[in-house]
């Protein structure tokens, strides 16, 4: 049972008619006795990049998984482009959506995992066309054309017929990013996209994400790459113990952190 009914309606902030692309309000999530998220609020304006930093176990992955409704919320809500994720409002109550509806909503939310999670038995091209064809019902030819365009964009057009195991980790992650883009998502979520990579392969993946940032893709990136955060983030969010400890422009949070916990974390990773 959720207690979402007490939460306010989706707020409209900033632009009079445009809610932030991602809106998280009062989000609580426990696993048994372990309260992992303890009232997280987050706004991500359309076209902006938010980098989430924080120690292991602070709830970063759970936050991303909650945004995608891979986790049910205990309390609070997530809205993407003004649409509640995972629930339907009826009067002052929220009802959980049917799985089919949640799957439809998820097509708007691209997710890139630490370990790529490509389909090993499908070619690179098939990895990109599978969901557009099966989940969105796009014609095969159209899905293939779009997939080739995206592979071009991540510099892997010549690998269309290869299988994931034939690619380096960096190449696999670039394919995973292209696959996420194939559904034309409203937002892309990255959960430590480079932390499984050999150091020499990190740059090529970050370059692809930087390119997306330049073209106005709305993104939330969980990463320990501070240099990347400094260069690309519009907002840096520091999480610890299931709460947002502080957030702001990279220059503030990274160079002049106000909280001891942020300072201690940065001293370890910088
Ligand atoms: P982070 O990504 O910041 O390292 P996580 O969100 O993965 O943190 O995890 C936060 C806490 O939640 C950890 O203590 C972890 O053990 C716990 N946790 C995460 N997922 C589950 C789960 N499915 N069941 C039980 N505990 C979980
Ligand atoms: Mg994590």
UniProtKB/TrEMBL annotation:
Residues 22-266 form the ABC transporter domain. GO terms for molecular function: ATP binding. It comes from the Bacteria. It is a peripheral membrane protein. PROSITE patterns: ABC_TRANSPORTER_1, ABC_TRANSPORTER_2. Its main location: membrane. Keywords: ATP-binding, Cell membrane, Membrane, Nucleotide-binding, Transport. Gene3D superfamilies: P-loop containing nucleotide triphosphate hydrolases. It is found in: Cell membrane. This is Amino acid ABC transporter ATP-binding protein. It comes from Kitasatospora putterlickiae.
